[in-house]
Write a structure and sequence with these properties.
Number of strands of chain A: 4
Largest sheet of chain B: 2 strands, antiparallel
Order of helices and strands of chain B: HHHHHHHHEHEEHHHHEHHH
Largest sheet of chain A: 2 strands, antiparallel
Order of helices and strands of chain A: HHHHHHEHEEHHHHEHHH
Radius of gyration of chain B: 20 Å
CATH topology of chain A: ABC transporter involved in vitamin B12 uptake, BtuC
Number of domains of chain A: 1
Strand content of chain A: under 5%
Oligomer: heterodimer
Shape of chain B: globular
Distance between the termini of chain B: 22 Å
Strand content of chain B: under 5%
Helix content of chain A: over 70%
Largest interface: A-B, 41 and 43 residues
CATH architecture of chain A: Orthogonal Bundle
Radius of gyration of chain A: 20 Å
């Protein structure tokens, strides 16, 4: 416990290694997947399919960007899936009432950010383990969304700008991908090149040392929770736009996909170690697998089985590689 | 060893018997349970009837059985979140074998064998391959749930054999009063609580979860202890899955969704720490019963299921926060 920011990503960059330890494994897996799928189904590389993959990555990547920061501070948020569904319903209801896209987005950001804030306060002030605290929040949101609305909140406002959030394009690139890219870049720069980013790593690696050196570790964790919440707010609006409705049943299991992508990307659940680039690779691997299963015409239920195998396999390969390195 | 960390807190001022009794985690939980029961017996109709009481114990048997395994894995310093998916999966060998052979023993044997294999895989990957248990069991959860979807094509597989002995597992009652499922659950609870408190293996589990390094130096085989805990957890989840399959009379692909979260919540509510080495099976059982009586009482008040979810969520957070505050005050004072 003596090292504070031992496996610092900045140091790795300085050392000239672009790919961190676990990312290398992941990049190889991703490449192998792409080659294997494209050999079996040449249409894998068609422009339409690549764009489809990117679009499916977008929602997961947006939330995973926040989640990576949070897990780096050694906390976790299991309420993101339930929150995603709730946000869509609230955003749609506000849009129906006000016919204003700005107000709708503000409402959903405020709601999701508020959920993140409450999660953060429960964890940092009440000292509740984040796994339990956010399971509690997940239950409250799952129950709450049905109290709010029994069925899907339909689109009664027909704002074209709202439809554009999910279904729009800039050139050939879908809008969700642009949102995801923007959020990813902001988060990436923050984590890698700013003092704030370094503090987040430090809090996860050794909270006591951080507190002793005069930083307010609770504030940093709280911030990570709120950022994760805001990411859910954005993703929720995009999802509502894609489905053209606020679905109370949406987002079931979403939290597990997001966490799986982050873990797959090599971010340690113990905190202090991980990178957003790894998360990007993790999201890509999961979604390329999903896509491969569809274009190869396999049973779609394999979309659950294969990621399960991949998560365990990737973690195992990472451990084997680390052992080889030590020798 | 478990709860001594709570009782060992310095108590200079309050030395009266009652105050010391109150300091025990299990006692506080028991008082909570009494309060919950007292509250609903005044407000909810028929709450105190024998029928309703025994029903609650029958319903609690699932979470209670799986909770034993969950708590033991927690105490060993690991987590197992594959139990919900396992619950759904073992119904397949169970129902398929029973439909094929008309034999309850063979069906249960097949289900236990399946659960044993999953426990061995989880335990091996965690204890021997060294992968984080949250990752292993998250992966396993995906694999099992996906496997059930794949095999069933998202349709329920009915229990065509409809053996009397199997149906008795769901609605059979000893002397027409106590559900068999509750007897199974409390029987297992007694056996494992005895093991945890009075057998060397129980002490090893506490030692391994409390401080693996010290446990290793004391000559315990840390890996084997953790490996065994995962097998226990999977086998107990299998037993819970058998009871559930009997209750719904089929193998359902959606069975046990979110079950792992309910069990984890009840276990932590019962004072079993995720950090390992702390907690007791009695505490876990009280946690399960509090949540079960709560949801039963709320239903008795005519509140919809959604409100039950919301209130349960709030209570879990409040209980853990309260416990944490008490612990810090004990350390600080």
């Amino acid at each position: 416990m003596s090292e504070i920011v031992h496996p610092s990503p900045a140091r790795r960059l300085a050392g000239g290694r672009l790919l961190g330890s676990s990312q290398l494994v992941l990049a190889v897996i991703l490449a192998a997947l792409c080659i294997a799928i494209s050999l079996a189904a040449p249409q894998f590389y068609s422009e339409a399919n690549v764009i489809a993959i990117l679009r499916q990555c977008a929602l997961v990547l947006i939330v995973a960007s926040g989640m990576t920061m949070l897990i780096i501070t050694a906390e976790v948020d299991l309420s993101v899936g339930a929150s995603l569904a709730f946000v869509g319903c609230i955003g749609m209801a506000v849009l129906n009432a006000t016919h204003s896209l700005t107000l709708g987005i503000l409402a959903s950001l405020a709601f999701a950010g508020g959920v993140g804030l409450v999660n953060g306060l429960v964890v940092t002030r009440l000292k509740v383990n984040s796994l339990i605290g956010t399971i509690g929040m997940m239950m409250m949101l799952q129950g709450g969304v049905y109290l709010f609305t029994r069925e899907a909140v339909q689109n009664h406002h027909q704002l074209s700008s709202f439809t554009g959030l999910g279904a729009g394009y800039v050139g050939p690139i879908p809008m969700p991908v642009i949102f995801a890219a923007a959020i990813f870049i902001i988060a990436y720069v923050t984590l890698r090149f700013t003092t704030l980013g370094r503090y987040l790593y430090a809090v996860g690696a050794n909270e006591k040392a951080v507190r002793l050196s005069g930083l307010r570790s609770e504030r940093l964790k709280l911030l990570a929770f709120v950022v994760t919440g805001l990411c859910v707010g954005i993703a929720g609006m995009i999802l509502a736009s894609l489905m053209n409705a606020g679905q109370p049943t949406a987002g079931r299991g979403f939290e597990l996909t997001v966490i799986a992508a982050v873990i797959l990307g090599g971010t340690s659940l113990l905190g202090g170690r991980g990178s957003l680039f790894g998360t990007l690779l993790g999201v890509l691997v999961l979604k390329v697998i999903d896509n491969g299963i569809i274009i190869l015409g396999w049973n779609q239920d394999l979309q659950m089985v294969v990621p399960g195998v991949v998560i365990i396999l990737a973690s195992y390969l990472d451990i084997v590689r680390n052992k080889a390195n030590v020798r | 060893m478990s709860h001594t960390s709570m009782t060992a807190a310095p108590d200079k001022a309050e030395s009266s018997f009652f105050a010391r009794l109150l300091k025990r985690q299990e006692m506080a939980l028991f008082l909570c349970l009494v309060l919950v029961i007292a509250f609903f017996s005044f407000t909810a109709e028929n709450f105190l009837s024998v029928r309703n009481m025994t029903n609650v114990f029958g319903q609690a048997s699932l979470a209670l059985t799986a909770g034993i395994g969950c708590a033991i894995v927690f105490i060993s310093g690991e987590v197992d979140i594959s139990i919900g998916a396992l619950l759904a999966t073992i119904a397949l060998p169970l129902i398929l074998i029973m439909n094929g052979t008309e034999s309850l023993v063979l069906g249960i044997g097949g289900a236990l064998l399946f659960g044993l294999i999953i426990g061995i895989v989880n335990g091996y990957l965690t204890a021997y391959a060294g992968i984080n248990s949250l990752i292993v069991t998250l992966g396993m959860m995906f694999i099992l749930r996906g496997g059930v979807y794949l095999y069933t094509g998202q349709r329920a597989i009915p229990d065509d054999a409809a053996l009397d002995s199997f149906i008795a597992l769901s609605d059979g009652r000893l002397f027409g009063v106590i559900p068999y499922s509750a007897i199974i659950a409390f029987g297992l609870l007694l056996i494992f609580a005895y093991m945890m408190q009075h057998r060397p293996f129980g002490r090893q589990i506490y030692a391994v979860g409390g401080n693996p390094e010290v446990a290793r130096l004391a000559g315990y085989d840390v890996r084997r202890v953790k490996f065994t805990c995962f097998i226990i957890s999977s086998l107990l989840a299998t037993v819970a899955g058998i009871i559930l399959a009997a209750r719904v009379g089929s193998a359902q692909h959606t069975a046990g969704l979110n079950f792992e979260f309910q069990v984890v919540a009840a276990t932590v509510l019962g004072g079993v720490s995720l950090a390992g080495g702390i907690g007791s099976l009695t505490g876990m059982a009280l946690g399960v019963l509090i949540l079960q009586f709560l949801s039963n009482g709320l239903r008795g008040l005519g509140l919809p299921t959604e409100w039950q979810l919301v209130i349960t969520g709030i209570i879990i957070i409040a209980a853990v926060a309260f416990d944490e505050a008490k612990r810090r005050r004990a350390i600080g004072g």
